[in-house]
Amino acid sequence: MQHLREPRPAHPCAVIPGTLEGVRFRRSLEGKFALLAGALTLASVLLAAGLIALTGSVVTGLLIAIALAAPAVAYVVHRFMAPINRLITALGDGVASFQDGDFSVSLNAARDDELGALVRHYNATGEILRRERHNLYQRELLLDTVVQSMPWALVLTNAADRIIYSNLTARQMLHQGRKPEGHAFAEILAHAPEALREAVESGRDGMFSMRQGDEDDIYYLSRERFTLNAQHHSLYLFKQLTRELNRREVAIWKKVIRVISHELNNSLAPISSLAHSGRLLMRDPEPERLDRVFSTIEDRAAHLKRFIDGYARFAKLPTPQLESVSWEPFIDALREVSGFTLAAPLPRDAGRFDPAQLQQVLINLLKNAHESGSAADAVMLAVLQNHEGLRLEVSDAGPGMAPEVLEQALLPFYSTKQTGTGLGLTLCREIVEAHGGHLSLANRHEGGLKVSVWLPRSEAS
């Protein structure tokens, strides 16, 4: 069976005179070369034929024809190639200017061949590059305006630790308003306040306080290292926190006052009422009623004492006394206070922490887990230990926490319980951070809440 084939397109050189392709061929550079070569060949043949007929000798006629035609051909080829060579040279210079970042060079060549198309593409490319450079410049100008007006001090250094960029806030803070670009960062820091210099030289992110006039301003230093153009750079950000911390401190104190006022009123109001009732009963004594009055007063006073003691423990948290602790006795003692199920076998190696403080943390977390509405056997405790540190996880099968509650659960005095002081989780976090660790909360995918406590590995002193 014969296969049908699509007709192959004609080769560009195989053109039919009088067709559109023939017109394109004659206008192309290849066509112009062909026409020039044909004209020179025809002229050379006619000249040779005439000279052979004139001299009567083929050899003599050819030699004379070559001698006469060679200069003429060279001159015609030179005149034909001169504008092409100039245009190619101009295109080469334009491309070189592109490499140097100069996109302002445009070419003017009214040609209808391939070189004309190449020039048009070159000019279009230059226009695109000029437009992109202008847009990039506008974006850089906008970004620089934003960075220069931001209240954070920003310093960018290169691999040699020399400052290559800074904003106005950084210049005011580090170099009396002058540009520090080009200077070594260490040279600038040598004249900076000692607290700022120590914060940078520590190599860590964190807060530091710096004297400004008659007040101490609190700053937070964060740094980021990255690679740009195959060179290491460092970005330093100094954020002033004084106003924000003062605002939060005032908000916290207001909340403390509200909580304390609420608790005092809840205790003092019934105590005052019961004291008045007791005074009336003294006129006509009824022992049973008097006993209930004094018992209630005693209960409210005890509650008030527990409330004040909770604040006192939070304010006077002692430094952890680290010691080697075997897991089985520690867990057995914990079971006596609160029930739970071990989610994993206990580590063989002893842990190193303050047992009383960590027990207090776990008691609070287990108490919260039981109060979440979870089934008692669904309250789980996992103790995981490796060469990096210790992780304890308390999980339950309750409803979990709403996102807005998760964000504020560790803040002091925040509580979703009507009788809560908002210090339970905060005290746990303070104890864990005093051990050098951190505490985190997250909702479980299968439902419930998981509280994770991580403590770094600590060697015996």
Give the CA-CA distance, first to last residue: 93 Å
Tell the overall outline.
elongated
Number of separate helices: 13
H-E string: HHHHEEHHHEEEHHEHEEHEEHHEE
Helix % is: 40-55%
Share of β-strand residues = 15-25%
Unreliable segments (pLDDT under 50, ≥5 consecutive)? Answer: 1-23
- Count of DSSP E strands? 12
Strand count, sense and barrel status of the largest sheet are: 5 strands, antiparallel
Give, in spatial order, the strands making up the sheet with the most strands. Answer: 2-1-5-4-3
Q: What value does the Rg take, in angstroms?
A: 45 Å
- Round the mean pLDDT to the nearest integer and report it: 79
Structural class: alpha+beta
Structure description:
The chain is α+β, with helices and mostly antiparallel strands. The chain contains 13 helices and twelve strands. It has helices at residues 20-27, 29-55, 58-99, 114-149, 168-174, 185-189, 194-201, 242-283, 287-315, 327-335, 355-371, 403-408, 424-434; strands spanning 153-157, 163-166, 206-212, 215-228, 231-240, 323-325, 341-342, 351-353, 380-385, 389-395, 438-443, 449-456. The strands form three sheets. It has a five-stranded antiparallel β-sheet with strand order 2-1-5-4-3. It has a five-stranded mixed β-sheet with strand order 7-9-10-12-11. A two-stranded antiparallel ribbon has the order 6-8. The longest helix has 42 residues, at 58-99. The termini are far apart. Residues 1-23 have low confidence and may be disordered.
